[in-house]
Amino acid sequence: MTISITGITGNMGQATLDALHNIPHVDKIKLLSHSPERTEKLLKKHKALSAKIEIVQGGLTDDSAIARLISGAELIINMAAVIPPRADKHPESAVACNEHGVKTLLNAIEKAENAPALVHISTVAVYGNRSGAHPFARVGDPLLPAPLDIYAATKLRGEFNVLESGISKWAVLRQTAMLHPQMLSDNMHDGLMFHTTFDAPLEWATAHDSGVLIANIAERFACGDIPQTFWRKCYNIAGGKTNRSYGIDTFDDGFAVIGGNSKDFFKPGYSATRNFHGAWFLDGDELEDLFHFQSQTTADYWKEVFDAHPYFKLGKIVPNALIRKFLFGKLLRDDNAPSYWAKHNDDARITAAFGSRDKYDALQKKEWKDIVVPDRTNIPSMSDNAAPLYYGFDFFKPNSELTQADLESVASAHGGRLMSEFDGDMYKKLYWQTQDGEDFTACAYTVLRAGHWYSRIYTEFVWDFDRLAKKDKIFASLWYDTHERDEDIRYSIDENFRAHATKLSENDA
After folding, report:
1. pLDDT confidence band for 316 (50 / 70 / 90)
2. H or E element: which one contains 503?
3. For residue 170, what is the enclosing H or E element?
4. Cα gap 427→410, rounded to integer Å
5. pLDDT for res 314
6. How confident is residue 310, by pLDDT bands cut at 50, 70 and 90?
7. Residues 131, 134, 138, 143, CA torsion sign
């Protein structure tokens, strides 16, 4: 069998190539490469696979390269993505890869004579910020990507296009927070770490386990051993309950490698208080039950980091005050850090991440004794939320029992309408209307089972959830966990990728 893979030089891609060494039934592996230098370095590490590997030179938006990539392939694994911090600093690259590149790939697969199956890697970021009453997520929850997060918005669009494509066999896998070998060192070069809220619910999977998942899918596909029910569905790639923590725990675990913790190196006002992404999963066992890939714990990961980077031990003999001043002081000046936004009056990003400039300024005056941080020993052992989310219908009703009334109820809960007759086909295109009177098409699975509902974020960089949640009961059931009901901000990014936060008037309601 021939498989084709994009995104192979990323952390998940490299782990997948590692795992493919143990897969006997894959005869040929075609790799899309836009960086000959990185690919050459990667291939030197995998000489044992060299007889199986074919390099296709080009990018995801290159029609010719994509045609060569899928030619003769029976399975496509799309892991290509521009992720933060690059997505923050080079948003045009995120648009090209995460959105337009996916369209290019889908168009080619749809036109192929013998269309291959597609496994598309999406992200937990499509769920948006989670904390408060709803730290647990499942596929089907409303998708409210964090304001001004271009990565989340472009991945949302890419995923939607896969769901609504004409491909007969596809699966969307939403990757959770991923621990990879370079994470600690990477985070020492960018202000991205300060986007992580202390109370963010994070369920970590390692790059190793994620690679094993993809390799196991490829092996079972080659053996004809994947059940038909796997296809045309979304899944969460999860790490399991032993890998659940809060944002501040991850800081503490990482900083322990260099001899400190969050309170040694941070002040409470360094990090955002909202507008991140992460979740614990109610349905994370679905992929594990099918493909048995979870083997590493977060403790295993941090031990590997420590063993692989013995020079981190030097941090234990350097006074914490010096590390805080020279290392974290540098990060605070990075243009991706909230302190930089505040200094340069980027009030749009400050409002998105803290609620307002006043709230940000007030937080800077607080000490750790004034801050209540979550307790990792008190992470719920039961996979449940403090309050149920509102879906607009009985979420646990089987697809075979869904009726016209169920779909109409969901549309009404969103403040809109269903404009089509539902005949029980979950993948038939239906016409819907939003609360703003905008028409869009989407199948019942996309709306009821994958959580998509059209708003301007699908076509523009406009996050209008403050306004929409006032009439959308489904959005409201989640949005107000971390936003006030009287907030009236429309977030947007203009054609020059400048961020805006516009106060809405009564006429905008």
Report:
1. low
2. strand 499-503
3. strand 170-175
4. 16
5. 58
6. low
7. negative
Q: What pLDDT, in 10s, does the model give residues 134-176? A: 999 999 999 999 999 999 999 999 999 999 999 999 999 999 9
Give the DSSP per-residue string, 333-363: TSTTSHHHHHHTT-HHHHHHHHSSHHHHHHH
Q: What is the tens place of the pLDDT at every residue in 107-117?
A: 999 999 888 99
Contact between residue 338 and residue 272 where contact means Cβ atoms under 8 Å apart: yes
Instruction: List the structure tokens of 208.
Output: 């190793």
Each residue's pLDDT tens digit, 399-420: 999 999 999 999 999 999 999 9
Q: Where are the domains positioned within the chain?
A: 2-183+202-239+283-294, 399-508
To the question of pTM greater than 0.90 for the whole model, the response is: yes
Counting every residue written for the chain, the total comes to 509
Residue 181: strand pairing partners: none
Q: Are strands 201-203 and 244-246 parallel, antiparallel or unpaired?
A: antiparallel
CB-based contact 202:144 (threshold 8 Å): no
Could you give phi then psi for residue 384, rounded to 5 degrees?
Answer: -155, 160
Residue 503 burial class via C-beta count within 10 angstroms: exposed 0-12, middle 13-18, buried 19 and up: exposed
Q: How many helices (H) and strands (E) does the chain have?
A: 22, 19
Three-state SS string over 81-124 comes to CCCCCHHHHCHHHHHHHHHHHHHHHHHHHHHCCCCCEEEEEEEH
User: Hey, is 176 helix, strand or coil?
Assistant: coil
Single out the residue of 97, 245, 261 nearest to residue 179, CA to CA: 245
343 class by beta-carbon count within 10 Å (0-12 exposed, 13-18 middle, 19+ buried): exposed
* Residues contacting residue 164 through CB under 8 Å, at least 6 positions apart: 429, 441, 442, 443, 446
Class of domain 2-183+202-239+283-294: alpha beta
DSSP-H helix ranges across 114-170: 150-163
Each residue of 406-445: b (16+ CB within 10 Å) or e?
Answer: bbbbbbebbbbebeeebeeebeeebebbbbeeeebebbbb
User: Per-residue confidence at 317, pLDDT binned at 50, 70, 90?
Assistant: low
Please tell me the distance from the alpha carbon of residue 291 to that of residue 105, in angstroms, as a whole number: 25
Q: Which helix (H) or strand (E) holds 165?
A: none
